[in-house]
Design goal:
heterodimer; A: alpha+beta; Thiol Ester Dehydrase, Chain A; six-stranded antiparallel beta sheet; two-stranded antiparallel ribbon; 8 strands; globular; B: alpha+beta; two-stranded antiparallel sheet; 3 helices; 23% helix
């Protein structure tokens, strides 16, 4: 079991998403993990100094928040697609609502299938208070069955 | 550099060095020409989003686009006042080619007292000219009362 296809199938069979997250180098680089223990798929980006964009505030770099939103959306799309697919991002529209403080950031996506090959995931990011999101995004993916 | 002055270019190059996340990604300032800011992101296996193909994660491109857009806004400001990204829309036209450096070129299309509108494109400098992504962003400018815009207000 080494290919992403195998890892995805195994993750779905066992309900454990961590192996899938571990197979994506950029998620490891940013310290992004995913957790399904609450029943929801929650993405988490653990705070690290390398995520800072503006050191004088300090505030997280918008690119790191965008990456968390996009990654959580990809994982949600993978999880809710019936077959093993690797979603290809088509567009992402990010609204930055509040400055990202130097603490852990979380995200949750809502999946809508718009057609056989297109899915739309709305995703929101927050820090200490889930009712006060720091950013949200709409992500459109092309989903193609693997093999 | 034409028309923008080497001083502004040096300022932006320095700015790039003081952004911790840009440092972590190895993003470097390439040029400021006619208000267009170009930044570069080296290819690095740590930035891969699709392990099947080796294509870079969109998040790394997002950071590069956001950085270039922000600098294009700074390039229009007389004083370096704080700015913040309001929104960023990215169209991924085709996957970045594995192994190749990605450049982004950003330009302010309009600057008002409080808001700047920016367009940006991502491409391979040694590629066939096809764009990897295009982006459109708006930025909030926290201008002090006395400060104005250079060339933006019409």
């Amino acid at each position: 079991m080494t290919s992403v296809t195998d890892i995805l199938r195994m993750a779905k069979d066992t309900g454990d998403i961590s192996a899938l997250v571990g197979a994506i180098p950029y998620l490891h680089f940013l310290g992004i993990t995913a957790d399904r223990s609450s029943g929801e798929l929650i993405g988490k980006m653990a705070y690290a100094d390398a995520l800072i964009g503006n050191a004088s505030i300090p505030a997280l770099h918008g690119g790191t928040i965008g990456a968390l939103l996009e990654s959580t959306a990809i994982l949600q799309a993978l999880w809710e697609s019936e077959t093993a697919v690797l979603p290809k991002i088509v567009t992402i529209t990010i609204d930055f609502l509040r400055s990202g403080r130097p603490v852990d950031t979380f995200a949750k996506g809502v999946f809508t299938k718009q057609g056989r090959r297109i899915v739309n995931v709305g995703v929101e990011a927050w820090q200490e208070d889930r009712s006060r999101p720091i950013a949200r995004a709409q992500v459109i993916f092309l989903v193609e069955p693997l093999e | 550099m034409t028309g923008d002055g080497e001083q502004v270019g040096r300022l932006l190059a320095n700015l790039a060095r003081f952004v911790p996340h840009s440092q972590a990604l190895g993003i470097r300032f390439v040029s400021l020409t006619d208000g267009r800011v170009t930044l570069a992101l080296p290819y690095d296996e740590r930035f891969i989003g699709n392990p099947l193909t080796g294509v870079l994660h969109g998040g790394a491109i997002t950071a590069l686009l956001d950085g270039a857009c922000g600098m294009a806004v700074y390039a229009t400001l007389v004083e370096p006042v704080p700015i913040a990204t309001l929104d960023l829309r990215i169209d991924y036209l085709r996957p970045a080619t594995p192994g190749k450096e990605v450049h982004t070129r950003a330009e302010c299309v309009k600057v008002t007292r409080s808001v700047a509108f920016v367009r940006c494109e991502a491409f391979h400098p040694d590629g066939d000219g096809d764009l990897v992504a295009v982006a459109s962003g708006t930025f909030m400018i926290f201008r002090s009362r006395a400060a104005g815009a250079r060339g933006g207000e019409s």
